[in-house]
Structure formats: C-alpha cells, structure tokens
Design brief:
Two copies of one chain form a homodimer.
Chain A: E1 6-9, H1 11-17, H2 25-37, E2 42-47, H3 60-67, E3 74-78, H4 82-91, E4 95-101, H5 104-111, H6 115-131, E5 139-145, H7 158-170, E6 175-179, H8 187-201, E7 206-210, H9 218-227, E8 232-235, H10 255-264, H11 273-286, H12 296-299
Parallel strand pairs in A: 1-2, 1-8, 2-3, 3-4, 4-5, 5-6, 6-7, 7-8
Helix pairs in contact in A: 2-3, 2-11, 4-6, 6-7, 7-8, 8-9
Chain lengths: 310, 310
C-alpha cells in the first residue's frame, strides 16, 4: 500500500457550489490560504462556469490568481467545456478537470451533451492544452462522474465505464479519475472498477477517487481505493455542501476524518491535523448556520495519537 | 472474503445503557421482535448488572425470557462477573459475553479488578458454563475491550492484547472478540491486530469485532475486518447511545449503514433493509428526541439496489 497520499481539497468548488449563499471572496481566500498552510498541497478552488448558472463561482478567476501566489499549492479548477478551459488556461491553473458523466441520461440532462459530443469537447480541450507552451501547460484530467451509479439510470455497466475511460484517454487527456457523484459506491465495487479501468488504460492513468459519504461508506471506499493503488482522494472540509437530494445527508467525504484515518494508518498526508481543524472556524464564520460534518472534529484526537513523520 | 456475515444488534444493551432514560419494557420487546422479523439473527438484549448501577437494564431477565420465544434468534446478554453469569444461565441465554479491558487502568477504574483478577473471574465463569448440561450450555465469549487504545492509557501494546487473549482462551472461553470501546481503531490496526490474535489463538477463535464510529472510521474498519476473515460485527440501530465523552459524536456503528454496505458488496446478511429501516420508528417513539444516527436512512437506497439473494 502507498506510503503517502495526496488530498485534494474540493470544498471551495464542490462544497460551495452546493451551498445557496455566495461565500465572500475574502473568506474564500482566507480558507484556501489557511488550508494550504496546514499542509494541503492541492485545492480545487473554483469552476469556470457562467456566473449566471453558478453565482457562487463568479470570482473563480480572482481566486485562481490569488491561489497561484501560495507556495507549494497545486491550483485546480473545474471546467465544464472548451470555453471554460480557455478561461482556466488564461488564468494559469496548474490542473483542470472536466466532469464526464458515465450515465448518458445524466450527461444529457446536466450539460445537454451525449457521450460522443462530450468526447468531442474533451478532445478539443486536449488539443488546446497540447498547444500551450510546456512551462505553462496545465495538467488536464477527466472525472468519470456517476461512475458508481446514477440517480436517473441506476447502475452503469462496468464495460461502459471502461470504454469511455479509454475514449477519454484516446482524446488526449493526461489521466482519468472515478467519481461517486451519487454516493452509490461500495468497497467491493470500488476495488473492481479501479482494477478494470487501470487494466484498460494503464496503472498510472487512474490515480484519483472522488467519493461522497451520502450513505456513510466514504472512508470504507477510501480503504478499498488505497488497496488498489489510488494515491489522490478528493475531500471537502467539514463535508461542506451536503447532498442536494437528501437533506441532512453528507456530500463529499470529510477532509478532517480522511486525514485522521490516513495518518492513523501510517500513511503520510503532509497535513497538520490540529491546524486543519482550526480552518473550520473560517468556514463557519463565513457561512453561519451552514452544517459542517465530520466526527473527528467533535471527538478530538485519540490520547497518544501521533501523525506520520513527513 | 466471506459470503455471509452475522450482524449482532447491540442497541438494546450497549445503546440503551448509554441513554439516561429507561426504555419501557414493552418498547424493548417490540424493538427486539421487529428487528428479528427483519432478519437480524443475533441480539444482545441486556446486561445482568445490578439494577442500582444501570437501571436501564433492570428488566433484562424479562427481556431474555421474551426474546427466547422468538424463532431463529440467538439471545445474547452481557455479564460483568460470575454473579451475572449465574443469572444469565438461569434465564437460559444462548450466548454470554464478558468485557475484559486490555487497559489495566481502565479495568481497575471500571470494574475494580486488575488483569489477574479478571482472568480468575473469567475462569470461574468458564468452569460454571462447563458444568451445565450440553443442551442448555450457553456459548461464552470474552470481549477484549479498549483493544485499540484507551482514553486513560492511550495505545495498548499488541503483545499485551495477544497475551491476554491467550490467557482468556486458557481460562476456558469459547472465543474472544476485539472491541474498539473508545473509537480509536483504524483499518491498518484492525488488520494487524486481528491477524496477530488469530495467529496466537487459532483462526476460528476470533470471529467478532465490536466497532464504534466515534471518528467516522467504523465502516472502514469493518472492511479491514472482513478482509481478515471476521464474520460477526456488532452494530446498533440508529447508532443508539452516542458517545459519552463526545456529545454529538456517534457511538456504535450504525446497523442500517452496515447492512447497506455489506449487501451492496454482495455479502449476505439475511436482513431486509426496508423492514430494518422501519424499526427506527419504534425506537424514535419510545425515546422521543434521542438522536438516531445513520446516513442510509436519510439518503434512502440507490436506484436499482438489490439485496443479496439469501
């Protein structure tokens, strides 16, 4: 099993886009800065979507510019299409990610594109990325969303996911990740699907899992992913964002609990848990009353707990 | 990995003993009956402790007598000592469990017995069990509590746990279980400790894990246990009981989420999830305002979800 793991904080993007209120730009900056100072090395800071659709993300360009000034931080943005990718490249992101829904029904409903239109869009972005000078060329990856099942279609066949992962790689992306958008995944499925996709596209082309804790299985799914060689996990501080279709149910896996689990297992995250726990105050103050999840923040660290030496 | 798992519902004992209010005897009976009807095959229904110490458990004899009338149900009681074991045997329990704290400080504080006094007590009970006629002889097991760390001592050495597990087996118990009383366990530790104890006392002498979800790692620890051949998991409906030292933090792992995870993984529990979810109403009505935990009850089952064919 891997000795160290990258945690990619997605709260400022995936968390905030599920919160109705718009977090003030200054608060976003304070959050990102504090979390980077706690040792988080990768943060998805926003999304280059039209601000009419997601006003919460309207300041993404300013946030990216700010995050780029922080040392030792990989700045990630979500892009929904070529237009978003052009803006992300102009702002100099380190990494761009495009969601590609494995359920065609979901894809059509969500972005009005079927699978072949999505592959064409991904190829157009990959071609644009390839044209950038090497020094400023962002890492471009595809998040295979609804990979573990869809609220409209139900289960999605493994073969379909493998085929679409191959198509994305052929379109020129650097790597793919698997996303449990709906919180449907279970550990056996995570093991099976990670193994199948890695076998098809190469062991080093699937490194990231984006998991939700909708049914409480988030960290159990992390364990299954670790055992299959996954080295990057998305997570959200305080599990921010909840779950749109299940009030009271958590959305993203909680960064604090994930860091505790990994460090307790002897897997280095490079993150200082005490500092990380204090970052919650920034979010709580900026979004009063917004529910923050996580068990470790309530329970505290075990007596005698030691983090892994970096 | 195992194809089927036994879930031992401990809510009527471990859950209720952490709730200040006393649940009415009739409500306990309704709960136990409904959960057995949902397919739960083992329930820890109470504890033979002095009712002065735990008034919540004062009706344990009546509850055992009632539970014994339910078909296909193994009726378990906790016994703190020889006196409790005598009462449990008189009531005809199918299985008795005694907690044996791996932290000597915790043992002395909790039951005023050091490790050698506990081993003597366990031996006295095992001798009493051996004298019973075979047809009515209960299964007697030891729960190795605070095995993953203690709130007073901090970490407990693996070697100490292995040595005390061997001592319990030598005293004549049928098997031992590992208990994460404090919610300190992590998946790597579960794997390591299960393997060490099994190696020392025999692969078939450690079958049960009692896990808490205090820091959100409960189901992740289940995955680690499954991979090491554990076949019985304790769990509490609605995670009832909370956690005494961390208000708002969950105690026992939640039966509903555990059943969902196992069935989704293709591991049969014999439990009907829809029926199980309805049992929450009985508990909620009997203990108004008591927090019930669990993610699956809020989120519901995934579209297209199918339980494992029994």
């Amino acid at each position: 099993m891997t000795q160290s793991v990258t945690i990619s904080e997605v709260g400022p993007r995936d968390g905030l886009q599920s919160v109705d209120r718009v977090m003030a730009t200054a608060a976003k900056k304070a959050w990102i800065k504090a979390e980077a100072e706690a040792g988080v090395g990768e943060i998805e800071v926003g999304s280059f979507v039209p601000s009419k659709l997601l006003p919460q993300m309207a300041d993404t360009a300013e946030i990216v510019a700010f995050a780029k000034t922080i040392a030792n931080l990989d700045v990630v943005a979500l892009v929904p299409n070529l237009k978003g990718a052009e803006r992300a490249i102009a702002e100099g992101v380190d990494k761009m990610s495009i969601p590609f829904s494995m359920s065609e029904t979901h894809s059509i409903n969500n972005v009005r594109k079927d699978h072949s239109a999505m592959i064409a869009e991904i190829k157009a972005i990959a071609d644009l990325v390839a044209k950038q000078p090497e020094a400023s060329r962002p890492h471009f990856e595809v998040g295979l969303s609804t990979a573990f099942g869809c609220t409209m279609e139900g289960p999605v066949a493994d073969d379909q996911i493998v085929r679409l992962a191959e198509a994305a790689m052929n379109a020129g992306v650097a790597e793919v990740g698997l996303s449990d958008t709906t919180g449907y995944a279970n550990p056996a499925q995570v093991s099976r699907l990670v193994r199948k996709v890695k076998r098809a596209i190469g062991d080093d082309k699937l490194n990231t899992l984006h998991l939700h804790n909708t049914r409480g299985l988030g960290l159990a799914n992390v364990v299954a992913g670790l055992e299959e060689g996954i080295t990057t996990f998305d997570a959200s501080l305080g599990g921010l964002g909840g779950c749109p279709f299940a009030p009271g149910a958590s959305g993203n896996i909680v960064t604090e609990d994930l860091v505790f689990m990994l460090e307790a297992m002897g897997i280095s995250t490079g993150i200082d848990l005490d500092k990380l726990l204090k970052v919650r105050d920034i979010v709580a103050e900026a979004l009063p009353g917004e529910p923050l999840y996580g068990f470790t923040p309530d329970a505290g660290l075990p007596l005698g707990f030691q983090k892994v030496a970096a």
